[in-house]
Structures are given as structure tokens and as C-alpha cells.
């Protein structure tokens, strides 16, 4: 039993590492959009603001990215998230459990809203989203792979899709 707990802990740590490694990749992508004269301090502050949503809206900006755009998006988003968290905590203790559970679906809708606009504009992104959905479903039913924990499947999918996209569709800039 102890070995299973240790293996689970290692798997959880590895899964979190791979999932959160995306922030480093997002930071690198954002830094490439900045004017080369942007100071190190501004770049470090920008790195602090990186979330999936902030990255999405920042990368959709045409041309060079102003760090002030991202700072502004971060302030607005953080204020909204904090107020929303407070409101959600209050309402979560007041609303019936069935309603609270149903509202949890909204989180998935919010995440989807990050990549749908870009997928509409960029065929490569749309194809990658469809491939990720298809592979995720296939991994759920594929012999041997379905036996793996969901965390390990996420790691495999993240690495495969990212690597495949980087090899097949490299960004030339």
C-alpha cells in the first residue's frame, strides 16, 4: 500500500509538472512578441501575469505586444477572478448542490472560449483542437492505454500533440 501511495504521489507531481510546464512555454512565446527593447523588469512582471486566458488574449494581438496590454488584462482578470471567487463561495453555500454542480460546467465553457476564436481564424489550431479531442477519446478506449491513469494519459497527450505540432507546423518567426 505504501508503494502505491508513493507511486501515486510521483505520478501526481509529474502530471502537475507537465501541465504547468505550459506556463514556461507561454512565457517564451509572449517574450517573442515583445519589442526587443522591453526591459528585463517588464519581462519578469509579464511572466508573473501568464495564465491561459491572459496568454490567449495577448497572443491574439496583431504585431508586437505591449506589456501594458497584458498588465491591464491581468489586473482586470485578477479583479474579476477574485470577486467571482468570493461571490461563488458565498453562492455555493446558499444554492442547492444540484445547481452548484451544474454551474461547474461553466468552467469548461470559459476554457473553450480561449481557443475557439483562434481556431476560427487559424486552420492549424482548429485541426490541432480536433486531433486533441479525437486522441483524448481514443486514449479512453484504447487497450493498454486506458489502463493508465488519467494523469499519465494527459502527459502523453500533451507531449505527443505539442511535439507533433512543433514538427509539422513550426512557427517561422
Tell me the layout of helices and strands.
Elements lengths: L1 H32 L6 H9 L3 H8 L7 H26 L4 H7 L1 H17 L1 H19 L8 H19 L5
Helix pairs in contact: 1-3, 1-8, 3-4, 3-6, 6-7, 7-8
What's the short story on this structure?
79% of the residues lie in helices and 0% in strands. With 173 residues, it is mainly alpha-helical.
Plain-language structure description:
It is a single chain. It is built from 8 helices and no strands. It is an all-alpha fold and 173 residues long. The protein is globular, with a radius of gyration of 19 Å.
Mean pLDDT: 86
Summed up, the helix count is 8
Q: What portion of residues is helical?
A: over 70%
Largest sheet: none
Strand content: under 5%
Order of helices and strands: HHHHHHHH
Number of strands: 0
Gyration radius over CA: 19 Å
Amino acid at each position: 500500500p505504501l508503494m502505491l501511495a508513493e507511486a501515486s504521489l510521483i505520478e501526481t507531481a509529474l502530471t502537475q509538472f507537465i501541465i504547468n510546464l505550459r506556463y514556461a512555454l507561454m512565457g517564451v512565446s509572449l517574450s517573442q512578441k515583445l519589442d526587443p527593447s522591453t526591459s528585463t523588469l517588464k519581462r519578469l512582471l509579464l511572466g508573473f501575469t501568464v495564465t491561459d486566458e491572459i496568454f490567449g488574449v495577448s497572443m491574439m494581438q496583431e504585431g508586437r505586444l505591449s506589456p501594458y496590454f497584458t498588465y491591464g488584462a491581468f489586473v482586470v482578470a485578477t479583479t474579476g477572478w477574485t470577486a467571482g471567487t468570493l461571490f461563488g463561495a458565498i453562492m455555493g453555500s446558499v444554492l442547492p448542490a444540484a445547481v452548484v454542480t451544474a454551474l461547474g460546467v461553466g468552467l469548461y465553457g470559459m476554457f473553450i472560449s480561449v481557443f475557439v476564436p483562434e481556431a476560427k481564424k487559424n486552420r492549424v489550431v482548429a485541426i490541432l483542437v480536433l486531433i486533441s479531442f479525437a486522441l483524448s477519446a481514443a486514449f479512453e478506449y484504447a487497450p493498454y492505454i486506458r489502463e493508465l491513469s488519467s494523469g499519465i494519459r494527459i502527459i502523453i497527450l500533451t507531449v505527443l500533440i505539442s511535439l507533433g505540432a512543433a514538427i509539422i507546423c513550426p512557427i517561422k518567426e
